[in-house]
Amino acid sequence: APERVRAELVALVALPAAATALALLVELGLVDHTLPELEQAASQVAEPRSDRLAEAAGRIRVVAALIRQLESVERWPLEVPARAAFARALADTSPPSLTGLKAYLSEQMGAETARATLVRWAALFAPLTLSPDQGTGTLAARNRLSALRFSRAAIEFVGLVLASRGAFENVASVGTLTETDYGSDPEARRTIYRYYRDARAAGVAGALLALAISETRHIYPSPECSPAYVATARTMVQAYFTQRGSWIDPAPLLSGHDLMALGVAPGRPVGTAAALLREAQAVGAVSTVAQARALVLRAVQGGDCLSLLAPGGPA
Fold first, then answer.
1. How far apart are CA 186 and CA 283, in angstroms?
2. DSSP string covering 19-43
3. Which of 142, 188, 225, 269 could cross-link to 265 by cystine, CB 3.0-4.6 Å?
4. Any residues with CB less than 8 A from the CB of 64 and at least 6 apart, and which?
5. Could you tell me whether strands 113-114 and 108-109 are parallel, antiparallel, or unpaired per DSSP bridges?
6. Is residue 258's pLDDT more than 90?
7. DSSP states of 136-161
């Protein structure tokens, strides 16, 4: 039964030695019957057996790297392994964020498993490089988890983790969030806001997955992540656990009725105005009801709702 297979695989993937167990499944040929996607590249093109084994080996290395990341968080504050650059960076700049991250990872998604295990599942479907076929891994994950009767919440979470991993890599490659004083930079805050607007809570796990993948790339042969990835992940995670109410999920200053009373047309324009005003709050352009009303009035009088945004424009 799918539920029985799911229970066995969840227990296996949650093991500290999950990477070794997965490698044994591949060696014995059992993944063909349980997790065939482990050997499939993002392109879904039929590949020789040797190539499929290489794909599986790459994803298993990502799982192993991810487990190291998770264990470094779980061991804090008793111990932070010397090579755990991300956990060390977070412990140095924001210990409360590590406390929040530990609680986040232990939270149950649905009835079957915690986030710490589900992010490992995401690693099983993650393409090792970003490509136009990036969405294929997300679709494969959704189909396999659905076939195994995972809860809707768990399936949605894994899908968002895979999607946010790509968004994280794009941000890290630009280097917008590598400085420690990111709070004073509206564009850095805009980047954080837009990342979590799309990824929601899964964005935290997406950052951890991207870190694990960066460990396995040949340009970083030692078990260390790219410094830009570490700095970006530190900023993203710290913002989520210390500034969520102001930079990521600010409480609305104006209701839909307030916006219409100020001259915004009913229907979609209200939703657009509310979303843009929310972003203006997140980047610090407005912080009071009076400022929000003044900004909306200027936008209405100018005939352009997009003027609610500070420089940076719509995404």
1. 5
2. HHHHHHHHHTTTHHHH-GGGG--TT
3. 269
4. 18, 19
5. antiparallel
6. yes
7. HHHHHHHHHHHHTT--HHHHHHHHHH
**What are the structure tokens assigned to 302, written together?**
């100018």
Six-digit token string for 315: 């995404």
Instruction: Report residue 252 as tokens.
Output: 């609305």
> What does the alpha-carbon distance between residue 102 and residue 122 come to, in Å, rounded to a whole number?
18
- Cβ atoms of 234 and 86 closer than 8 Å: yes
Q: Cβ distance 5 to 148 under 8 Å?
A: yes
pTM recorded for the entire structure? 0.89
Contact predicate 125/140, CB 8 Å: yes
Q: Which residues pair with 109 in a beta bridge?
A: 113
Tokens read off for 216: 């396995």
pLDDT digits (tens, 9 = 90+) for 62-120: 999 999 889 989 888 877 666 678 888 888 888 999 999 999 999 998 776 899 999 99
Distances, alpha carbon 131 to alpha carbons 37, 178, 282, in Å: 17, 24, 31
Distances (CA, A) of 205 to 93, 108, 164, 209: 19, 14, 8, 6
Helix (H) or strand (E) holding 4: helix 2-13
Q: Can you read off the two tokens belonging to residue 298? A: 């200027």
Please list, in sequence order, all residues whose beta carbon lies within 8 angstroms of the beta carbon of residue 215, skipping any fewer than 6 positions away. 62, 65, 68, 223, 224, 225
> Two tokens at 50?
């040797």
